[in-house]
Design brief:
7-stranded parallel beta sheet; 5-stranded parallel beta sheet; 17 strands; 7 helices; alpha/beta; globular; single chain; 308 residues
């Protein structure tokens, strides 16, 4: 019989990503209610030390799979390893972040396991002993509640949907497992990774985001956005119109065809509020809109609005 909660942990630059800490915290809360256990899974190379961090945020057990082939993420290798780990652990639910990696992994794992997948969830509750996932539909204009009888339940959770608990002195059982990767899953290899250095937080993990739209008029005026972001310790975002106009790179695009974000505070500067943009930031906790047009659609979702 399936049991427990399994969290697929993501790490970057030697640290667990914030969304993984959120999932461990929420998994711990659910496990305490159900009398279940939380298992974290760490894949990579030289990641064993992160098991202590996973334990302090709620893991009872941490499975560590280290191999040179897992140093950098590839779809095939990670899918192959996680498929076998999940079958061996037989959890009731598998949680992963709705990140680039999570969105890539979850449907492939669902296919191999023969189960469904609830993607981009922003809420999780328990009703009559069943887990119910809340996810936006119709570009964020409505929400659906999803439940399934198939086990395990696979779900990707939008970053910043849950609160990170305070770390504890909890100790976890650490189990090292060899990477048994099917040869057919090693067709793709990473030749090189080019990263752009930035002192600002990553867009999807940021608690505060300051975004600019086409009304910024040019790329140079984004310096105003950057200065405010640096004061607030925020990330810098942009609307699709601003990106299409060449004011900002695509990596900064927020919206249906860009990145989906859920910060505590979202400041929209000169963004009209097209439905595609609202789909990417509508779940922000507090929205501040600054626009010269008092009829701009962004004001329909804003908690605070400034016309000017």
């Amino acid at each position: 019989m399936p049991k427990g909660i399994l969290v697929v942990l993501e790490q970057f630059n030697g640290e667990l990503r914030k969304v993984s800490l959120e999932l461990l915290s929420e998994g711990r809360r659910l496990a305490d209610q159900k009398g279940a256990t939380v298992t974290g899974v760490l894949l990579g190379q030289g990641v064993k030390d992160l098991a202590n961090t996973a334990a302090s945020y709620g893991a009872d057990k941490v499975i560590v799979v280290e191999d040179e082939k897992l140093k950098d993420y590839t779809t095939g290798a990670y899918t192959s390893v996680l498929n076998k780990v999940i079958r061996d652990e037989n959890p009731e639910v598998v949680l992963m972040g709705n990140t680039g990696i999570g969105r890539d992994l979850a449907p492939r794992l669902a296919q191999r396991l023969g189960v469904g997948c609830a993607s981009d969830c922003v809420g999780l509750s328990e009703e009559n002993g069943n887990l119910v996932f809340k996810r936006p539909i119709y570009a964020g204009k409505a929400y659906a509640e999803v439940a399934t009888e198939a086990r395990p339940i696979l779900a990707t959770i939008r970053p910043n949907s849950f609160t990170v608990a305070d770390p504890s002195e909890r100790q976890a059982e650490v189990v090292e497992v060899s990477a048994d990767i099917d040869a057919s899953d090693l067709k793709a290899i990473i030749k090189d990774i080019i990263r752009q250095a930035s002192s600002r937080p990553e867009l999807t993990d940021a608690n505060i985001i300051v975004s600019g739209g086409r009304a910024m008029k040019n790329a140079e005026n984004f310096k105003i956005i950057e200065d405010l972001a640096d004061v607030l310790g925020a990330a810098v975002g942009a609307s699709r119109a601003a990106v299409d106009s060449g004011y900002r790179e695509y990596e900064a695009q927020v919206g249906q065809t860009g990145k989906t974000v859920s910060p505590t505070l979202y400041i929209a500067c000169g963004i009209s509020g097209a439905i595609q943009h609202l789909a990417g930031m509508g779940s922000s906790k507090v929205i501040v809109a600054i626009n010269r047009d008092p009829e701009a659609n962004i004001f329909s979702v804003a908690d605070y609005g400034i016309v000017g």
